[in-house]
Design goal:
This protein has 364 residues and is mainly beta. It has 1 helix and 27 strands.
Length: 364
């Protein structure tokens, strides 16, 4: 088995602003739609949403940027799903804009976020006002933001994944967990809440869950796994659900070094994973597993080599997340396209411009 890059290109590149956290969706009628957030930095007060389209997955053009001059919120991590009636549904998170930074490394508090949905009836050119997704957790102890793509098991069961952190004013340590809320009425209301991974001791943190449906219908999720209070990433872990997200297996380790990792289910039951490699040399890689746990690191493919532009500056703060806010590439994701190739995408920095790219990979 070999992995080979067969095509690659630019999703968005503009020296006037940075582009971050792209996602691409293949449309049932042909063509593709993508979303990302743009702004002066990865997590800056001017972050807003951009939508792009392509007829062939190679040449892309922007068709929408929104909201406009909204001084109260910054918008990050948009992802688009095409519904059965042809409408587009976008999930995203808005973060309250205050005088403080997104993350305060001293208090470990996060700006107040809200999980959102938007709808479009015209292919992504215009979008509805946002609907806030309710999460039944005490707001004095938790914040919550979207993490991972929305899953539509059926027309009466949708899953919106998220992760928790702590708000400003809460004095205790963060009670961090990966979880999801569910809707039985196509996103009109959200109620049922399920915890996907949680270490009650608080020593292990579960970040950036990303999922894929396996051929047998199970939902397989990989989590960035981090040791609290340190700069140590553990190996990525995985969990699985065979009942549409109602219950989950205990986390099990993979052999992939930690940070964001997106699984892509293959028709023969194997799983590809595209992940951030923050060690030396830094970049983005793809590997294949036959058993959900052990990936073939010897034949993995380097999709992007960060070189000297792996970070955008330095910090003398001891908190790991203060350092992480300065990363210069990340959030790789992808899917199995209709032609049997993997269409992957991510954000990165080259010659000082932070932009988004796509890479198409053949499995031979």
């Amino acid at each position: 088995m070999t992995l080979r890059i067969v095509d690659q290109g630019i999703l968005s590149h503009d020296p006037a602003y940075g582009a971050y956290m792209p996602t691409i969706t293949r449309l049932a009628g042909g063509g593709y739609v993508a979303s990302q957030h743009i702004g002066s930095q990865l997590a800056s007060a001017d972050n807003r949403i951009e939508v792009l389209t392509s007829s062939d997955g190679q040449q892309w053009g922007s068709i929408a940027r929104f909201p406009g001059e909204d001084k109260g919120w910054a918008y990050r991590g948009p992802e688009i799903e095409e519904l059965s009636d042809g409408k587009l549904l976008m999930t995203a998170t808005q973060f309250e804009v205050t005088d403080a930074a997104l993350f305060d490394p001293d208090s470990e508090a996060l700006q107040r976020p809200e999980m959102l949905t938007f709808e479009s009836n015209d292919g992504g050119r215009n979008w509805s006002a946002p609907c806030v997704v309710a999460v039944d957790l005490p707001s004095d102890k938790y914040t919550w933001n979207g993490a991972g793509r929305l899953v539509r098991f059926s027309e009466t069961r949708w899953m919106y994944p998220f992760e928790t952190w702590k708000p400003e004013g809460y004095d205790g340590p963060p009670d961090q967990k990966a979880a999801a809320v569910f809707s039985a009425d196509q996103g009109k209301t959200w109620g049922e809440l399920t915890v996907i991974a949680d270490d009650v001791s608080g020593q292990t943190l579960w970040w950036d869950q990303l999922n894929t449906r396996l051929p047998d219908g199970r939902l397989y999720t990989i989590l960035w796994t981090h040791k609290y209070g340190t700069k140590e990433d553990l190996m990525n872990h995985w969990v699985i659900s065979d009942d549409e997200g109602r219950t989950w297996s205990a986390p099990q380790t993979t052999n992939l070094p930690g940070q964001v990792c997106c699984p892509i289910g293959l028709p023969d039951g194997r799983v590809a994973a595209i992940y951030n490699h923050r060690g030396e040399p830094p970049g983005i890689r793809v590997a294949i597993s036959d058993d959900l746990s052990t990936f073939d690191r010897e034949t993995e493919l380097v999709v992007f080599d960060a070189g000297a532009e792996a970070t955008l500056g330095t910090t003398d703060h001891e908190n790991f997340l203060a350092e992480h806010m300065l990363i210069a590439f990340g959030k790789p994701q992808g899917f199995l396209d209709a032609d049997g190739t993997l269409l992957t995408y991510f954000w990165c920095t080259s010659q000082g411009v932070t932009h988004t790219r796509w890479v198409r990979i053949a499995i031979e």
